[in-house]
Description:
The structure holds 2 protein chains of 2 kinds.
Chain A: E1 4-5, E2 11-14, E3 19-25, E4 33-38, E5 45-50, E6 54-58, E7 61-66, E8 71-76, E9 85-93, E10 98-101, E11 105-110
Parallel strand pairs in A: 2-11
Antiparallel strand pairs in A: 1-3, 3-8, 4-5, 4-9, 6-7, 7-8, 9-10, 9-11
Chain B: E1 5-7, E2 10-13, E3 19-24, E4 31-37, E5 43-50, E6 53-57, E7 65-68, E8 75-79, E9 88-95, E10 105-106, E11 110-114
Parallel strand pairs in B: 2-11
Antiparallel strand pairs in B: 1-3, 3-8, 4-5, 4-9, 5-6, 7-8, 9-10, 9-11
Amino acid sequence: xxxxxxxxxxxxxxxxxxxxxxxxxxxxxxxxxxxxxxxxxxxxxxxxxxxxxxxxxxxxxxxxxxxxxxxxxxxxxxxxxxxxxxxxxxxxxxxxxxxxxxxxxxxxxxx
Amino acid sequence: xxxxxxxxxxxxxxxxxxxxxxxxxxxxxxxxxxxxxxxxxxxxxxxxxxxxxxxxxxxxxxxxxxxxxxxxxxxxxxxxxxxxxxxxxxxxxxxxxxxxxxxxxxxxxxxxxxx
Lengths: 111, 115
């Protein structure tokens, strides 16, 4: 089992709709969870961080964490073409403070 | 807003040559990292650095790799004898606290091409 799993996509969503991105992880001791956005050829850019169960909202973005089920998700409301990118989930490995990265989900917002 | 800066943006080198990739982390950050991303593949951890020493390194970070903080601002990654498979984007990142609690902030990357 991969430590952090994401559906590689591409996930195609019409403009204005809600995009839902999911991530599962294997280390039950993980405490910190991050969503990064990466445009092609660019560096990862932090979108959201979440540390406790439940929802965390920031503008059009909502991160959801469920530690019992070991998944974290990112919702993007009112999707825009500029949201088209690869979204990376990163989870800390509790034992050595290392961040473990998923392979990313490619999101395409269709005008 | 403070940012991590990396130079050069693109480096072309011949196989067997040494390269040094440079990074200036955000000034009040204490943890520094190097990651790489081979084209089309996932981001891979190389090494983390704290308190002037390596705190973690991956199996990718073998004897050909080294890091240094030669002064109070720069953080460098050296590859002693480059191989074709070292061609990748290399990202430097820094964080205020450790990765458990603090998000990483990335530089724009150096694209290394080994010919």
